[in-house]
Give the backbone structure.
Amino acid sequence: MINEVVENFRSLESREFRVLRAIERGMRDYDFPPVSFIANIANLPEDETRYRISRLNKFELVERKKIGEDRFRLNFNGYDSLALKKLVDSDTIDSIGGEAGRGKESDVQLAKKNDQEVIIKFHREGKVNFRKIKKMRDYLEDREHYSWMFVSNLAAKNEYKTLKNIYKKLDVPIPFDWDRHAIVMEKVPGNELIKTKLTKKDADFVFDYLIEEVKKAYSLGYIHADLSEYNVMVSEERISLIDWPQSVTLDHPNHESLLKRDITNLCNYFNRKYKLEKEPKHYIKKIKDIN
């Protein structure tokens, strides 16, 4: 799907981006903003607004609903297009490549930044994780139609902020920029830990290395909060911790239980797959002893 967004992105005109932004603004107040409202925000005649929306609809960037009059809202394709536009206009990326991967809560696209290969990570939390939306219901009040954008934006913002604060001390992807639900970051080499075959000796080394990285993050005031064999990248040169959108700081009320879960996940994986004998309590104590 993201490849089609990139292809259609090149065909969009400046006034169509203006209409997309107007629809985005309208979604703060409406489930499906009416055309009259969109035209007013975009500062375009209503007939031209309808023409621009017809093109956006053809490119599958908006959804239509008739409630007395025609109304439209963004879908993830439209939101992707707005984020790409901002990242291109700010010279964060020079060109956009093919799809690099697709996960449960994100899509990843290749791109170039000053001839360096990078990735754009598009967060999709609001599309698939209704538990997170439910947690934020008090904040969203009656704007649940807006929640998928809000949750995805919040996840990207949290991940970018965390990476920005820890990347100089830990082996994590270098973050370059973010907009809305999309982050431009370093393309980390290697394969997921779950897909990597290690000797027992190497597994012991990797485990100890990860504990030291978690300890560094803790000393900086952060806990990954979703650590597992699926978000560790292993190559000949590096062992990197990726996927930080759920990270929390040490003032989070559940930070201790989240740290315990992270370390228990690591111990269980290495004990199960490599027959190691790692005790979570020992390593939690070691991580918290930051003197």
